[in-house]
Amino acid sequence: MVQRTTDLERQQRKEFGARLRELRKERGLSQEGLAHEAELDRSYVGQVERGERNISLDNIYRFSRALGISPADLFTPGPR
Amino acid sequence: MVQRTTDLERQQRKEFGARLRELRKERGLSQEGLAHEAELDRSYVGQVERGERNISLDNIYRFSRALGISPADLFTPGPR
Predict the structure, then answer these.
(1) A47 touches chain B (CB under 8 A)
(2) What sections of the sequence does the record tag as coiled-coil (chains A, B) (predicted)?
């Protein structure tokens, strides 16, 4: 049974992606640079930032380690 | 290509699961009760709490809404 993505879920993914982009740019990293640090694919970084991915816990941790922050910071507005 | 779960990932999932259980118990909820609030399966709640699941962003939000907290609280120790 394929579940449809709800509007709320789409909005949450967009918010998460925008926050990831903000934190990446704060650190002067390109998508390529973040992908390299997190050992993930550059196209995947772009998809997450555009809110196109229902990212997993493992990858949330990969991004937070690559950015040198706590995963909580990815859910908390404001400079880190 | 099936990726092996690393020890670090296993440990992160366990930590997340233990934090979810702590917050659930703080609110006097059973696994059944949390599952009902989050509109998820009770067995899934148990698996996440035992660190057996690489939970997705959508379900992290479902749990935080059901617990009345921010997703960041699921990554931050201490009472909420």
Answers:
(1) no
(2) none
> What separation in angstroms does the CA of B73 have from each of A45, A47, A70, B25?
24, 25, 11, 14
**Residues B63, B22 contacting (CB under 8 angstroms):** no
Q: Are A13 and B57 in contact (CB under 8 A)?
A: yes
B7 near A CB under 8 A: no
Residue of A44 and B76 predicted with greater confidence: A44
pLDDT digits (tens, 9 = 90+) for B28-44: 999 999 999 999 999 99
Distance from CA of A47 to the nearest CA of B (A): 14
Show the domains of chain A with their CATH numbers: 7-74 (1.10.260.40)
Q: For B18-76, how does the pLDDT look when each residue is reduced to its tens digit (9 = 90+)?
A: 999 999 999 999 999 999 999 999 999 999 999 999 999 999 999 999 999 999 999 98
ipTM above 0.90, yes or no: yes
Contact yes or no for B76 and A54 at CB 8 A: no
Partner-chain contact A9 B55, CB within 8 Å: no
Question: In chain B, which residues have their Cβ closer than 8 Å to the Cβ of A75?
Answer: 70-72, 75
- Cβ–Cβ under 8 Å, residues A17 and B57: no
